[in-house]
Design a protein that fits this description.
Elements (H helix, E strand, L loop, with lengths): L1 H18 L7 E3 L22 E3 L3 E4 L12 E7 L3 E9 L21 E7 L6 E7 L5 E7 L8 E3 L7 E7 L2 E9 L10 E12 L4 E4 L15 E7 L7 E13 L10 E14 L4 E7 L27 H4 L23 H6 L5 E5 L6 E10 L4 E10 L2 E7 L5 E7 L2 E12 L3 E12 L5 E12 L5 E13 L8 E12 L4 E10 L16 E12 L6 E14 L11 E14 L4 E9 L2 E3 L10 E3 L2 E9 L6 E12 L6 E12 L4 E21 L5 E22 L2 E22 L5 E4 L8 E17 L2 E15 L6 H10 L2 E10 L2 E2 H7 L1
Parallel strand pairs: 1-14
Antiparallel strand pairs: 2-4, 3-13, 4-5, 5-11, 6-7, 6-12, 7-8, 8-9, 10-11, 12-13, 12-14, 15-16, 15-44, 15-45, 16-17, 17-19, 18-21, 19-20, 20-23, 21-22, 23-24, 24-25, 25-26, 26-27, 27-28, 28-29, 29-30, 30-31, 31-32, 32-35, 33-34, 35-36, 36-37, 37-38, 38-39, 39-40, 40-41, 40-42, 42-43, 43-44
Length: about 800
């Protein structure tokens, strides 16, 4: 052990010597202008003579510290006035054909060169605002937060501000102008201010990236290596009041075999989203009569695991500006307006002389609001509240026609509070509380957590952790309240070529954060480690090369039933990832997983399934995305050793062809053949647990079409067909000791054939700054049978020919800014 520690410290010191040079932050004097500026991308206004020049950029990828070449260099200018900030310049190119450009819509990366301005307005090296522009004039913006798990920090591109920009492509490259009104940024009201600042440029065809203030990718954090914009004087945070009223029209066509719906239903609605600056730092966001009918369809799957499927969040209110609310991983926004807690209890309540008429699968959101921001002293505060109305299933008596209601979800109030205090050296402590209060006799849930993350002065070593308690409070006397506990603790080296991390996570048998978070299971104590070495400069055949070894061990916190063993599972994995000189990324890995005790696959507490040891080998490759045709592929195979001859393979292929800067086609297909799988199948009437050797074939097929008419108008088409077929071959009953006994006489094979088909077609037109017209067509089909037909085309045809839900909608969102209205009046 002493030799191992000495070896790690030696590598650590070597990494420090090789990567840490003292980089003196650059400084740019803030210049004020009183002259008018027309945002047309040409930089020919006299006002630009008042601006400070920022040039002499430094490359940080792929070659660290190399200066820009003359002819491909960057010249930028920065100034301000009483209304906002002006940023302009020229990205020079010797050959105009070297400019990578593609229209993909706002906040879409695509295959684009870009220029970006980053401000750390409170100069805390932890929080920033980013504004990006492409050669075809498309905008991105994001909130940036420091994150010890990522060299570039965390970027929230769902955050949007309203600002102006223009671009001109010419024979020397491309020139640009941006205007950022003060309403598009947060800052203090001090008379004289110094802001952290950096500017970055990326050339996609060579994958060269430059910054105005030099960046070393071996040092943890992007914001920790920023320059300074100094002497900003007499700027005042404006009154920030922005309204987004909307009007929408929906036409819904439902299958004729659903008796609770008409063939066509129409809906007209309107509502309002609001952003109000409570002061210079904090913003109130509210949605009144929310409408999320145009969001992308979920990627639904056949779930054969014992745990809930976690879906992505597409509702803008719950994705935009939520970096504070994600502290501690206690918030899963899909809980709000999600599946009613008694959805399936309603079916159990249907009597023999009754039938289910209607049982909505989502709770209706009445309204939601959030307050978030950060003071100049580094205190971040986030408060989120949402209310869903009571939801009922409708049940009809077949004999009398009498209708009755069954409450599947009571009126529910969701609260989330976050306090996050930042300190010097990229450190912070946080407090998080989530609370779910339900009506009727349903239980309430509360979770509180304290978090910390401390770095040393050199931003090299990190100590972080959390401690959480949960409380489920039941309102009926025959239910016992549950108080649970959980904690995490980790220590690691985050800067330099050599990195490591060791961690522990412990959760007792009563902790539960699932009411407002995503939580699969409690009762564990886990230990893990990570050791990695990275080569971040070109050498030989590669541009970058990353090597790492990681492993984990999981045990029960407390024994289950009569099972004496606490051991759950462990694994050891080695990875190599690299980028070649031709800008091709690839990776290889090997994984060994010893025999494990699976306490969750049986779906019955007190049982365990003893799974055999296995080996997995895999790799992936991603071609240069700047080329017209690009691919990415992945293959993983896991083989169990001396355990029922089980094996499985995961295959993925993604392709994209760009016909022009406007039109492209993308296709992704995932194929998971399991010729011999083994898992839980059913619980029989005698409460015995049935397992099966099964053949499982799963295909996930997605087609994407994109055509952008201009940088303000585009059309996207997305079609997805998912099929998963389960064909059970041999049956076994699970013994309490985790072994399996062969089972005969099973008449119901419990086969599954599940298909999902979705189309999302979206036309978007940004007809004014912050204002959009969206026309959307959504189609959904679903089939579910016990016929194990593995022929893909047969399944696809049957799904297409099945009853389809169709939805046509038109939505207009108009942006109203109080200051603009005031000027016009």
């Amino acid at each position: 052990m002493k030799k191992l520690i000495l070896f790690l410290l030696t590598l650590s010191s070597v990494g420090l010597k090789q990567t840490f040079g003292q980089i003196v932050p650059r400084s740019l004097e803030a210049k004020r202008t009183t002259k008018a500026v027309i945002i047309d991308g040409k930089l020919n206004d006299l006002a630009w003579q008042d601006a400070a020049k920022a040039d002499d950029y430094t490359e940080f990828r792929p070659v660290i510290g190399r200066k820009e070449e003359k002819g491909n260099h960057t010249e930028t200018f920065l100034m301000y006035d009483d209304a906002g900030i002006y940023f302009g310049g020229t990205c020079f190119e010797r050959n105009i054909d070297s400019i990578a450009k593609e229209l993909v819509g706002r906040d879409g990366f695509g295959t684009n060169d870009y220029i970006g301005l980053i401000f750390d307005t409170y100069n805390d090296k932890l929080n920033g605002f980013e504004y990006f522009l492409t050669p075809l004039g498309e905008q991105w913006d994001a909130k940036m937060t420091s994150n010890q798990n990522s060299n570039n920090g965390g970027e929230d591109f769902s955050w949007n501000a309203v600002w102006k920009s223009a671009v001109v492509i010419h024979d020397k490259g491309w020139s640009f102008e941006m205007f950022l009104p003060y309403s598009a940024i947060r800052f203090s009201k001090d008379k004289v201010q110094n802001w952290g600042m950096n500017i970055t440029r990326r050339r996609r065809k060579t994958e060269q990236q430059y910054t105005w203030n030099a960046i070393n990718p071996n040092i943890n954090g992007f914001l920790t290596q920023e320059g300074q914009w100094t002497g900003i004087t007499n700027i005042k945070p404006p009154l920030r009041l922005q309204l987004f009223p909307y009007f929408s029209v929906y036409g819904n066509h439902f299958p004729t075999n659903l008796t609770d719906q008409k063939n066509w239903t129409n809906q007209i609605s309107g509502g309002l989203d609001l952003k109000l600056g409570l002061n210079q730092a904090f913003t109130l966001d509210a949605t009144l009569i929310p409408d999320f009918g145009q969001v992308q369809s979920d990627n639904k799957v056949l779930n054969l695991t014992p745990f809930e499927v976690k879906f992505n969040e597409y509702r803008s209110f719950f994705t935009e500006g939520t970096e504070l609310f994600n502290k501690g991983n206690l918030f899963y926004s899909r809980r709000i307006g999600g599946t009613p807690i008694h959805l399936y209890d309603a079916y159990d309540d249907v009597k023999s002389n009754e039938k289910m008429i209607k049982n909505p699968s989502e709770a209706k959101l009445i309204n939601a609001s959030k307050i978030s921001g950060r003071t100049k002293n580094g205190l971040g505060i986030g408060i989120l509240n949402a209310v869903t109305q009571a939801q009922f299933a409708t049940i009809e008596n077949i004999e009398t026609g009498e209708i009755r209601k069954f409450e599947t979800n009571p009126t529910t109030n969701y609260n989330l509070i976050v306090l996050d205090q930042t300190f010097k050296h990229n450190s912070s402590i946080s407090f998080v509380n989530t609370n779910v209060t339900r009506g009727s006799n349903d239980y309430n849930a509360n979770v509180s957590a304290g978090l910390f993350s401390f770095f040393d002065k050199k931003n090299t070593y990190n100590l972080s952790g959390s401690a959480s308690v949960s409380r489920l409070k039941y309102k009926t006397s025959d239910s016992e309240n549950a108080l649970g506990y959980s904690h995490t603790l980790s220590f690691g080296k985050t800067s330099g070529r050599f990195n490591f991390n060791v961690s522990q996570a412990l959760t007792d048998t009563k902790f539960n954060s699932n009411d407002l978070g995503y939580f699969t299971n409690n009762n564990f104590i886990n230990h893990s480690f990570y050791v990695g070495y990275r080569y971040t400069e070109p050498k030989g055949w590669y541009n970058r090369l990353f090597l790492n070894l990681n492993g984990s061990l999981s045990n029960l916190f407390s024994p289950i039933g009569n099972i004496k063993s606490k051991y759950q599972q462990s694994n050891l994995q080695v990875n190599i990832n690299a980028q070649t000189k031709k800008l091709i990324w690839f990776g290889l890995f090997g994984n060994y997983r010893p025999a494990q005790n699976d306490f969750y696959e049986p779906r019955n507490e007190g049982y365990v399934f003893k799974r055999g040891n296995s080996i997995a080998l895999g790799g992936w490759i991603e071609s240069n995305s700047a080329k017209k045709y690009s691919i990415n592929a992945e293959a993983v195979e896991r083989v169990f050793l001396n355990f029922y001859k089980i094996s499985g393979i995961d295959l993925f292929l993604g392709q994209n062809y760009r016909f022009s800067s406007k039109f492209s086609i993308g296709h992704q297909i995932g194929f998971q053949p399991r010729p011999r799988g083994l898992g839980y199948t059913a619980t029989l009437d005698d409460n015995s647990i049935l397992f099966a050797i099964r053949k499982v074939n799963t295909v996930d097929n997605v087609l994407n079409l994109k055509y952008n008419f201009t940088n303000k108008m585009g059309l996207t088409f997305r079609a997805r067909h998912y099929v998963s077929v389960v064909d059970n071959k041999e049956f076994y009953t699970l013994n309490e000791n985790g072994s399996l006994d062969a089972k005969t006489g099973i008449t119901d094979k419990h086969n599954r054939n599940v298909n999902y088909f979705n189309i999302d077609m979206v036309y978007t037109w940004q007809f004014a700054p912050g204002s959009f017209l969206n026309a959307v067509w959504k189609n959904a089909g679903f089939t579910n049978s016990d016929i194990a037909n593995t022929r893909y085309l047969d399944n696809f045809q049957n799904t297409i020919q099945s009853d389809q839900n169709n939805n046509l909608s038109l939505k207009i969102i108009y942006f109203l800014d109080y200051l603009q209205l005031k000027r016009k009046v």
